[in-house]
Write a structure and sequence with these properties.
5-stranded parallel sheet, alpha/beta, 195 residues
């Protein structure tokens, strides 16, 4: 007989928002290692890495990535987050919130949950350097998130960190200290404060 899972109520969410190559994954892993409780590390890159997306891409029609597949993919990704948390999972989510509408959508979907929103900043030249070193990103992608999408202007954060010099244990500890001392209301909530 399969044991019944212990239901502990909705999980808590630490949401890291930053440009591509800004150090979100490194910070998420550092937080996950440091926390004394199990937190799931969730990102859209992990979904993509499973091979779930079709290889076929076309300029128009249903296989057009930008106008057809991508909007539905991210709408689904956003809806996965409350489902995971509502099942009692604590989450560290890394995301590139590229549009004010995405932030608004996340604020609505996560409104009933304990969400701590962290802005992850990194010097633009360092973003470029990391993209060159990684070799798996479009050059200028991270820079465009900051300069063109203006991702850090869509609303306030509960905490902002700079990962230009990397993700040290001290930086990870500062995030956890701020998270443990969080107060309400917080930055990620529906309405005018959500962008």
């Amino acid at each position: 007989m399969e044991p019944r899972p212990f239901h502990r109520g909705p999980g808590r969410v630490i949401l890291l928002n930053g440009a591509s190559s800004s150090g979100k994954s490194t910070l998420a892993k550092a937080l996950q290692r440091t926390l004394g409780e199990p937190f799931l590390h969730v990102s859209s890159d992990q979904f993509v890495a499973t091979g779930m997306l079709p290889d076929r891409r076309e300029e128009s029609g249903p296989f057009n990535w930008w106008s057809q597949m991508r909007p539905r993919f991210f709408a689904g990704f956003h809806r996965c987050l409350p489902a995971l948390a509502e099942a009692g999972n604590d989450l560290i989510v890394e995301h590139v919130i590229e549009f004010p509408a995405w932030r608004d959508e996340l604020a609505r979907l996560l409104a009933h949950l304990d969400v701590f929103l962290v802005g992850v900043h990194c010097d633009l030249d360092e973003l470029d350097r990391r993209e060159r070193a990684r070799g798996d990103r479009r050059m200028g992608e991270g820079r465009s998130h900051v300069e063109e999408n203006l991702m850090h202007t869509f609303g306030p954060y509960d905490l902002e960190v700079d990962t230009t010099a990397g993700v040290s244990a001290t930086l990870a500890d500062s995030v956890l200290t701020a998270w443990r001392n969080r107060t309400v209301p917080r930055a990620m909530r529906p309405g005018p404060a959500a962008g």
